[in-house]
Amino acid sequence: MAKIILFCLWLFIVRPVISLGQIDEINIGKEVDEILTHYYDGRIQEAKGLAQELKNDHPREPFFRELLAEILWKELEKSASRGQAPNKRISYSGQENQGLAKQFYNEINTGLSLTQEVLVLRPNDSKNLFLRGMLLARTGGFIAKFENGVGSYVEADGKTAEGLELLKKSMALDPELCSAKTFLALTMHNLILAANESILNNLTIRLKSYAFDAVGHKYDQGQVFKWLDESMVCNPDYYWTKDVMWDKKFIYQDILVRQAGRMDDKALPVLEELSSRFPDNRAVKDNLFLVRLHIQNRPGPRK
C-alpha cells in the first residue's frame, strides 16, 4: 500500500512538471510565430521588440540571440541601403547604423558562447551544433553584405564555411534538421553567380574559398536545386528552427523565380503559401504576380 501511495504521489508531482515544460515550448513557439509574422511582413520594430523580450526572458537560449541578430540585420539593411544600389554590398555609416552592427555582433558572440558551453560538455548536441552553425553562417553573410575590404571577404568565407560544416554535422546527427540544406544550396548558388562574373573570381573561389570546399568543391546548379527540394520536405517540430523553416521557402522561391520562367510551376505553390501567411510582404506579392503572369501567357500546345 505504501508503494502505491508513493507511486501516486510521484505521478501527481512529476506529471505537472512535464506538462508545464510542454506548454512552455508551445507558448514559446507561438511567440516566435508572432515575431516572424511581423518580421516577414516588414514590421521590423515590432519584431525586434518582441524578440528582445523573449531574449530577456530566456537569456541562456542561443536561438533567441540568433533570431534577434537576424532582425537586426534586416533593420540595418533597411536603414543603411537608402540611396544605394540594390543587391550590392552595403556601406553603413552613422552612429545609429554602427550601433545596430555592434548589437548584431554582440548577439552573435553571446549566442556562440552559449552554444560552446554546451558543446564542451556534449560535443554531439545536434541543437547547439545547428544553432552554432546558423550563428556562424549568418555572421559570414553579414560580413559579406556590410563590411569592406579584401580581409572581409576572407573572413566572410571562413565563417560561412565553418557554419556549413557544423550544419552538416547537425543534420548527420538529426536528419530532421535537413532544412539546413537550404544554406548549402544558397552558398553554392552565390558562388556560381560570383564565378560567372569573371575568370579571376572563378579561379580565386576554386583555389582559396573554404565555403567552396564545404559545398563539395564544385559548381553544380543541379545540386543547388536538389538541396532546395530536399530541404522543402523537412518539417521538424522545434521552435528553434521556425525561422529557418520560413527562410528556406523565401530562398526557394527567390532562386526559382530567377530561372527565366523555367521553374514557375514549382515556385507557384510556395509563393501562394507565403502570400497567405505573410500578406503584407511586397516582394512575395510581386513574385506571385510575375509567376502567375508567366503561366497565364505560356504558349499552349500547337493544334
Can you describe what's shown?
The chain is mostly helical and 303 residues long. It is 77% helix and 0% strand. The protein has helices at 2-40, 44-57, 62-80, 95-121, 126-146, 150-173, 181-197, 199-208, 210-214, 221-232, 242-257, 264-277, 282-296. 35% of the residues are buried. Mean pLDDT is 89; it is low at 5-23.
Would you list the SSEs in sequence order as H and E? HHHHHHHHHHHHH
Computed CA radius of gyration, to the nearest angstrom = 22 Å
Envelope shape: globular
Count of all domains = 1
Q: Count of helical segments? A: 13
CATH third-tier fold name: Serine Threonine Protein Phosphatase 5, Tetratricopeptide repeat
Characterize the largest beta sheet: strand count, sense, and whether it forms a barrel: none
**Strand percentage:** under 5%
Helical content band:
over 70%
Number of strands: 0
What's the N-to-C terminus distance?
86 Å
Structural class: mainly alpha
- Per CATH, the architecture is Alpha Horseshoe
Mean pLDDT: 89
CATH class: Mainly Alpha
Low-confidence stretches: 5-23
InterPro entries: TPR-like_helical_dom_sf
